[in-house]
Write a structure and sequence with these properties.
726 residues, alpha/beta, Quinone Oxidoreductase, Chain A, domain 1, Rossmann fold, 4 domains, nine-stranded mixed beta sheet, seven-stranded mixed beta sheet, globular
């Protein structure tokens, strides 16, 4: 199946072959019949993609500030590599889709196969969409007209926020698709609607539908017109549907609105709000969020949890339904908005049309019948006869940001053959496969496990999937590299240990590696070499300026992410174990808001750790700091020496020699290259299974310590593990 993408580096429009996406339990799989190009939004994306790097930076000053902050903490080279990698990733286009349901998730009761539906799916032959972003099309409404539903809902949400009343005079600035629809909705609410645009064709379109419309570019002054039309009172409000970087629309809106009037911004505009008119007139200003309540709420959009109608009458889905009902009863007519139609395979021509022809308004893409679409969960990217021969043949499960920005650039240059990569929806894995030279992309990870050419699996999915995928990969005879953590709860860990013990007894246990990269950093190895001959124990103080994350992010979820200490803090416990050359013996943890916050979710914690060899360590993992402070620092004390590891950019040594490098190095490359070489040359894993288990148990002990407010011995949690293993 094909999907439409934009190359953000060059601005090119691409039609890419991707595998059929998986349908999640709260999702609907839809075969697209028609989709609508949003000329305002998608034209802006095209222009952004075709602009120079300097122009891109000027358009996103907030992103530039983020880049500068990252340079201060992580260094120039890692930051620029991240920026260029992001710009080099193609972006899906489109959000106005109408089609037929071909598969439903296990939790779906609202739809059935064969239903005609609208959604905010992209320009793609087949889309997968969360159920709250899907609505049924009435029988008497065509796919073509239904494809306007989502963009019309943007206009409708602006109206709902504005709350028009009968007889009000309202100006709409910007007469593109959303602006024309906004005029219609205002008229339906009994308002006297006036349109403003600098494009004469759009002004004429509004006039042809009975509206007053002005073109300032033709000398028609909106300010003097409104003054005369309202007897110098001003209009009751303004709805801005223009898409421009200019601050002109908001300045003009403030000028023509009456005292205590209201202004709603629907389009993306310059937002340097002039204080004097807003202050003197006590104007109310609102920003409308897309299609309505529920937008950008992961629980609503991804988990399918609806807002109770008694409390939130008009969600984005109910806005969809309202538009479709108005189409069905003839109250809305979109035919006059359609200016162009193209076959989906001609999509690049359609985008040239909206870029070069300002008269293009409603541009419809038409799709092939289902029987003419090639549908497969596996798409070949390059010829299977790889130029690179190697004893290590890799398949990757997961293609998120960490995979694309860290893992794949390293593996591409490694002495290994990259064969297959999988992702749930297929797009990210296909983009990665093409960029980094994989032989195929798939949405069925079992393809990788069944592939006899693959002997090594990298697992970089969300944390809750790690243990299951480790087990399946090991049982398939594959070496495994899993990005941390090993497991997020005791039950998962026991399942992994059972399988490892069984395979070990049969002398069939492949290599198992967890992505504890910090110990492979040249800075960590430097300190290790200078302290390994010691005759006494170490004292280690590690401070992690982790930064705050949204509380509803999946990493905090006990069921999905396991919390930040189990999910990420394991890194730092492993690093201390590496320096101590010893397993963790006990953990005592304390936290801010300890009595108010669930222990597993708390990310302002201090862990006091003892090791079997008598070493002690303190891990301060804190999210309440400042981004300008280094993210990771460690002080290690040993036999008259002090080593300061400064954010993996330099070692400062007191009583020994320093180590400095040009850029930050957290050890990812040495870790992965070491893992690959170790598969070829050794039967032993780089980090012992005993150490991996001990580090994981230490994170569980941390949670237990917070919950029970006491020291937890690792032997206690080991006993719990052994009970489950029996």
């Amino acid at each position: 199946m094909k999907q439409l993408l934009q190359d953000l580096k060059k601005g090119e429009i691409l039609l890419e072959e991707i595998p059929l996406p998986n349908c999640g339990k709260n999702e609907v799989l839809i075969k697209t019949e028609k989709s609508l190009i949003s000329p305002g939004t998608e034209r802006m994306l095209l222009e952004f993609g075709r602009s120079s790097y300097i122009q891109k930076a000027k358009q996103q000053p907030d992103k530039v500030k983020m880049v500068l902050d990252k340079i201060k903490t992580d260094g120039l080279l890692p930051t620029m590599e991240t920026v260029f990698a992001k710009l080099g990733e193609p972006m899906p286009l489109g959000y106005c889709n109408a089609g037929t349901v071909i598969e439903i998730g296990s939790n779906i009761t609202e739809f059935k196969i064969g239903d005609r539906v609208v959604s905010n799916g992209s320009h793609s032959e087949i889309v997968v969409v969360g159920k709250n972003l899907v609505a049924k099309i009435p029988d008497n409404v065509s796919f073509e007209l239904a494809s306007f539903t989502v963009i019309a809902s943007i206009a409708l949400q602006g109206i709902r926020l504005f709350q028009p009343t009968l007889g009000e005079k309202v100006v709409v600035i910007g007469l593109g698709l959303i602006g024309q629809l906004t005029l219609e909705f205002l008229k339906a609410n009994g308002c006297d609607a006036i349109g403003i645009d600098i494009d004469q064709s759009k002004v004429e379109l509004a006039r042809s539908n009975g509206f007053i419309a002005l073109n300032p570019a033709k000398g028609e002054d909106p300010i003097s017109f409104v003054s005369n039309y309202t007897e110098e009172i001003g209009v009751d409000g303004v709805i801005i549907t223009a898409a421009t970087k200019s601050n002109g629309p908001i300045e003009q809106a403030a000028e023509i609105t009456r005292r205590k009037g209201r202004i709603v911004a629907v389009g993306a505009i310059g937002m340097d709000i002039p204080r004097p008119p807003f202050y003197e007139k006590e104007l109310s200003f609102f920003i409308s969020s897309s299609y309505g309540p529920g937008r950008y709420d992961s629980k609503y959009e991804l988990e399918g949890i609806d807002y109770p109608i008694g409390y939130v009458r008009w969600t984005q889905n109910r806005n969809f339904q309202a538009i479709l009902q108005l189409l069905s009863n003839g109250s809305l007519k979109f035919e006059y908005l359609i200016t162009h139609k193209y076959k989906f395979v001609e999509a690049p021509k359609a985008y040239n049309e909206i870029l070069n022809n300002r008269n293009a308004l409603g541009v419809i893409l038409e799709y092939e019948k289902m029987e003419n679409i090639v549908v497969d969960r596996k798409v070949n990217i390059v010829k299977s006869e790889s130029e690179k021969s190697s004893d290590v043949k890799i398949g990757i499960i997961g293609s998120g940001n960490f995979t694309k920005l860290i893992v794949l650039p390293i593996l591409k240059d490694a002495n290994a053959r990259l064969i297959g990569i999988s992702s749930a929806k297929g797009l990210s894995s296909s983009i990665a496969a093409k960029k980094f030279g994989f032989e195929y992309s798939t949405t069925d990870y079992t393809e990788l496990l069944k592939d006899k050419n693959i002997n090594t699996i990298f697992i970089t999915t969300r944390h809750n999937n790690h243990s299951e995928l480790i087990i399946k990969s090991l049982e398939a005879g594959k070496n495994v590299f899993v990005e941390k953590p090993l497991s997020i709860n005791m039950e998962q860990l026991s399942d992994v240990v059972k399988v490892c013990n069984k395979l070990s007894r049969e002398n069939k246990l492949p290599h198992l590696m967890v992505g504890f990269n910090r110990r492979f950093s040249p800075f960590a190895k430097d300190i290790y070499e200078k302290t390994k001959g010691r005759s006494s124990s170490l004292a280690i103080n590690m401070v992690i300026n982790a930064g705050s994350l949204p509380k509803d992010l999946w990493v905090h979820s006990p069921e999905i992410g396991g919390g930040r200490i189990i999910g990420e803090g394991c890194h730092f416990i492993d690093t201390m174990s590496y320096f101590a050359k010893s397993n963790v013996k006990s953990v005592y943890s304390s936290a801010l808001n300890q009595d108010k916050e669930l222990a597993i979710k708390n990310d302002n914690v201090i862990l006091n750790i003892t090791f079997e060899d008598g070493s002690i360590g303190t891990l301060s993992y804190l999210s309440n700091g400042n981004k300008s402070y280094p993210k990771e620092q460690m002080n290690l004390f040993c036999e008259g020496k002090v080593f300061v590891l400064d954010n993996y950019k330099k070692n400062i040594a007191y009583g020994s020699s320093d180590l400095k490098k040009f850029s930050q190095d957290k050890g990812h490359k040495d870790e992965m290259i070491g893992f690959i070489e170790n598969i070829k040359t050794s039967n032993k894993s780089l980090i012992s299974l005993d150490s991996l288990i001990n580090t994981t148990l230490a994170t569980f002990a941390h949670v237990k310590s917070l919950e029970e407010k006491r020291i937890v011995m690792i032997s206690e949690v080991e006993d719990e593990l052994n009970e489950l293993i029996k």
